[in-house]
């Protein structure tokens, strides 16, 4: 491709509205331009990278017998109403009406659509299992689009859906997709972790997120420093505390403190350890039952994990006004002492703990030497808190460390969530109707491109891994007015393309310094510069990732390029 006519509008300065590296570099490298908030036009350089990522995805999925199709982007409301997600997805759905007043949404995902297709097209176990996928633009009305392709309103996604007659069959495909994802992201040059995750509005259970490690990531990953364990911080389990099971030898006492203190400030005033200070958190389960949750003052409530632990659909902390209405006490003074007719659930770290400080519902005093087993009516214990760095890893190996991550893919076992809701059944060997057991598997294609850039860049620009680079080689004529340089460049351009490489040929009438800066910015794996030694048949070959520079005779150029690209591919 000749750069003189290639649509590649590079920028010298960092755009003021771009906060993260991938966004800055994609704008500066002429890969995309913003059309509206969270909506981007992909220019030719970006399209070439996207095509490389999509090719890897197709190769790996077709290798495990997944079939590609294309589903509509425009979804009738009735399908989403069958599963209840028309209301549950809320403002994230981009909704519209046709000329007849019929409600539609632009698809953020396609569970309802594919389930409706399969319930009508397949009715027998003989056609199972079935695994289909598509690569398509998706739409989501993000409240705050930001970070370029990392949080947009329009994005490219690969979504796959599998249908099964048995749990064993679902397990097999789920594992095959998990392993395919590992190969895809490895081939794309990413450093990533597969982490235990929450299924959220997708429904179902058993889900892993694939996270590209990056400081700009919006998710926190809790991982073991010695094993492969990793989980989203919202889902990371905490091992039970090993507290000594003993009743406090000290009776419950009252201690005077300065009025209007928080429980942490009271502990500080009394020089009481936070590990033996308990706060009372009033919550509403399923928007109905009010219960009291007890946690150590040095721990934080994990609402997402609590939903799973307590087997409810929602857990929401009461507002100050709701606390005062329900308990006739200021929110900061609420105490689990002397409570009647209300369930009390304690975090498992309190089991066997004694010598506790907690509120008494009075401004100027707190209770000390509280023994939960003796002084509180605790109904049950559960894992309610957010894991912390330094905690023991849930798999028993090593301790927990934190890292930031960008979600680039996720695999779900949906079970019968959608098939039950939509009446999608098949006939088994005995002629009985059964709901399909389903799996769902997504990869953010455009997000993956952004994640690659977040991990592969330096102060000069992007450094593309060979597998996804828009071009293999960047050929530069340093002086377009020099006939010998131009002639040799033209010969090399023809021969290198003939050898099967993708070549971007900078034939622009620009200064050498401009060409070098643009070459570093857009970051092809190998740069070949035709300069002053053209008459001798020598060119400069530079490896973008290492900075290695060699003077190579044109007779040896193809062999040297092949060797360097092979080295880079094996890194």
UniProtKB/TrEMBL annotation:
Catalytic activity: tRNA(Pro) + L-proline + ATP = L-prolyl-tRNA(Pro) + AMP + diphosphate
Ranges of residues in domain Aminoacyl-transfer RNA synthetases class-II family profile: 48-465
Principal place of residence: cytoplasm
A molecular-function term among this protein's GO annotations: proline-tRNA ligase activity
SUPFAM superfamilies per UniProt: Class II aaRS ABD-related, Class II aaRS and biotin synthetases, YbaK/ProRS associated domain
Enzyme Commission no: 6.1.1.15
Record carries keyword S-adenosyl-L-methionine: no
A Pfam family: tRNA_edit
Keyword ATP-binding: yes
Domain of life: Bacteria
Localization per record: Cytoplasm
Keywords: Aminoacyl-tRNA synthetase, ATP-binding, Cytoplasm, Ligase, Nucleotide-binding, Protein biosynthesis
Free-text comment on this protein's domains from its UniProt entry: Consists of three domains: the N-terminal catalytic domain, the editing domain and the C-terminal anticodon-binding domain.
Annotated NCBIfam families: PRK09194.1 (NF006625), proS_fam_II (TIGR00409)
Family: Belongs to the class-II aminoacyl-tRNA synthetase family. ProS type 1 subfamily.
Function: Catalyzes the attachment of proline to tRNA(Pro) in a two-step reaction: proline is first activated by ATP to form Pro-AMP and then transferred to the acceptor end of tRNA(Pro). As ProRS can inadvertently accommodate and process non-cognate amino acids such as alanine and cysteine, to avoid such errors it has two additional distinct editing activities against alanine. One activity is designated as 'pretransfer' editing and involves the tRNA(Pro)-independent hydrolysis of activated Ala-AMP.
HAMAP family per record: Pro_tRNA_synth_type1
Subunit structure of this chain's protein: Homodimer.
Name of the featured protein: Proline--tRNA ligase
Natural source organism: Alkalicoccobacillus plakortidis
Gene: proS
């Amino acid at each position: 491709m000749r750069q003189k006519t290639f649509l590649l509008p590079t920028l010298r300065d960092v755009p003021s509205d771009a906060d993260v590296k991938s966004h800055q570099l994609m704008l500066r490298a002429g890969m995309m331009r913003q059309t509206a908030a969270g909506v981007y036009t992909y220019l030719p350089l970006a399209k070439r990278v996207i095509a490389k990522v999509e090719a890897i995805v197709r190769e790996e999925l077709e290798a495990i017998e997944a079939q590609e199709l294309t589903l509509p982007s425009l979804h009738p409301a009735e399908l989403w109403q069958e599963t209840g997600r028309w209301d549950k997805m809320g403002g994230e759905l981009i909704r519209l009406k046709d000329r007849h007043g019929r409600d539609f949404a632009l698809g953020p995902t396609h569970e309802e659509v594919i389930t409706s297709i399969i319930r009508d097209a397949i009715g027998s176990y003989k056609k199972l299992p079935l695994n289909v996928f598509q690569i398509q633009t998706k739409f989501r009305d993000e409240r705050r689009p930001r970070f370029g392709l990392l949080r947009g309103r329009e994005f490219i996604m690969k979504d796959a859906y599998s249908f099964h007659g048995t749990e064993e069959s679902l397990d097999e495909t789920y594992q095959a997709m998990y392993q395919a994802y590992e190969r895809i992201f490895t081939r794309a040059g990413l450093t990533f972790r597969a982490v235990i995750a929450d299924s959220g509005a997708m429904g179902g259970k058993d889900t892993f997120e694939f996270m590209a490690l990056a400081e700009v990531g919006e998710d926190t990953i809790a991982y073991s420093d010695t094993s492969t364990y990793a989980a989203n911080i919202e889902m990371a389990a905490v091992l039970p505390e090993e507290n000594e099971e003993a009743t406090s030898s000290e009776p419950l006492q009252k201690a005077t403190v300065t009025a209007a203190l928080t429980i942490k400030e009271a502990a500080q005033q009394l020089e009481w350890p936070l590990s033996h200070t308990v706060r009372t958190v009033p919550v509403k389960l399923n928007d109905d039952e009010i219960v009291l949750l007890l946690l150590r003052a040095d721990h934080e409530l994990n609402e997402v994990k609590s939903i799973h632990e307590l087997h409810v659909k929602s857990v929401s902390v009461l507002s100050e006004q709701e606390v005062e209405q329900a308990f006739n006490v200021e929110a900061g003074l609420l105490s689990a002492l002397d409570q009647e007719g209300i369930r009390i659930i304690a975090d498992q770290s309190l089991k066997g703990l004694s010598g506790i400080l907690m509120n008494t519902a009075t401004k100027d005093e707190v209770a000390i030497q509280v023994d939960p087993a003796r002084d509180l009516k605790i109904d049950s214990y559960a894992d309610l808190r957010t894991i912390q760095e330094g905690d023991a890893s849930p798999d028993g190996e090593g301790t927990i460390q934190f890292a930031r991550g960008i979600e680039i893919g996720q695999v779900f076992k949906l079970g019968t969530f959608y098939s039950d809701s939509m009446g999608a059944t098949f006939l088994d060997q005995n002629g009985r109707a059964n709901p399909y057991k389903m799996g769902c598997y997504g990869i953010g294609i455009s997000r993956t491109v952004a994640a690659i850039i977040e991990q592969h860049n330096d102060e000069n620009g992007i450094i593309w891994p060979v597998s996804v680079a828009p071009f293999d080689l960047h050929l530069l004529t340093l002086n377009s007015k020099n006939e010998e340089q131009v002639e040799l460049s033209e010969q090399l351009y023809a021969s290198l393309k003939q050898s099967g490489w993708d070549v971007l040929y900078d034939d622009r009438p620009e200064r050498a310094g401009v060409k070098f800066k643009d070459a570093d910015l857009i970051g092809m794996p190998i740069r070949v510069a035709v300069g002053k030694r053209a008459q001798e048949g020598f060119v400069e070959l530079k490896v973008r990732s290492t900075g290695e520079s060699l003077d190579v005779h044109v007779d040896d150029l193809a062999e040297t390029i092949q060797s360097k690209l092979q080295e880079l591919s094996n890194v």
